[in-house]
Each structure stands twice: as C-alpha cells, then as structure tokens.
C-alpha cells in the first residue's frame, strides 16, 4: 500500500473517477428505461421527455470521456429507433 501523500492520491484518483463514471452510466440506463417504459404504455409525451434527458446525459458522458463517442452514438440511435418503433405500434393499434 502507498505511504506518502502523492502515492495515496495516485491510488485514489482512478477510484473516484470509476465511481463517478458508474453513477453517470447508471443514470443513463435509468432514463433510457423510463423512456422505453413510457413508450410501451403509450405515453408519447413522457417518452419524448425522457428521451431528451437520456440523450443529453449520453452527450454529457461523451464530453467527459465516460463514454466513447461511437458508443454514445450507437446508444442514442438504438434508443431512438426503439422509441419510434413502439410509438408506431401504438398508433397502429
């Protein structure tokens, strides 16, 4: 284990970053699920609101290097495609 202050800090920094990244990713997953659930129920307005929040969180995570830019693009694309599909099914019924 580290003994001096600089070595302790060097050991602590990635742990703090990991905790922050995990929290950001968890929040993204939460709002993604809320958007999908709202779309499944048929609440288009709620789904749009949660989609906007999830997209914003994904963009912020990319900006802070929590997520890679291509991962972020893929997640946003898949979420949008899924919501559009659910809303189209809701309109068809």
What would you note in describing this structure?
The protein has helices spanning 5-41, 44-63, 69-92. With 93 residues, the protein is mostly helical. Helix 1 packs antiparallel against helix 2 (44-63), helix 1 (5-41) packs parallel to helix 3 (69-92) and helix 2 packs antiparallel against helix 3 (69-92). It starts with a helix and ends with a helix.
Overall strand count: 0
Highest-level CATH class? Mainly Alpha
What is the percentage of strand-forming residues? under 5%
The average pLDDT value, as a whole number, equals 95
The assigned CATH architecture is Up-down Bundle
In terms of structural class, how would the helical and strand content be classed?
mainly alpha
| Helical residues, percent | over 70%
- How far the N terminus sits from the C terminus, by CA atoms, comes to 63 Å
Fourth CATH level, the homologous superfamily: Ribosomal protein S20
CATH fold field value: Methane Monooxygenase Hydroxylase, Chain G, domain 1
Largest sheet, described in full? none
How many structurally independent domains?
Answer: 1
Radius of gyration: 18 Å
Helix-strand pattern? HHH
Oligomer: single chain
Characterize the overall form. elongated
Number of helices: 3
Low-confidence stretches: none
């Amino acid at each position: 284990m580290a003994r001096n202050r600089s070595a302790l800090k060097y050991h602590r920094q990635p742990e703090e970053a990991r905790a922050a990244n995990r929290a950001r990713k968890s929040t993204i997953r939460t709002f993604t699920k809320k958007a999908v659930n709202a779309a499944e129920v048929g609440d288009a307005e709620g789904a749009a609101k949660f989609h906007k929040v999830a997209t914003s969180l994904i963009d912020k995570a990319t900006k802070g290097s929590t997520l890679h830019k291509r991962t972020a693009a893929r997640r946003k694309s898949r979420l949008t495609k899924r919501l559009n599909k659910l809303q189209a099914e809701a309109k068809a019924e």
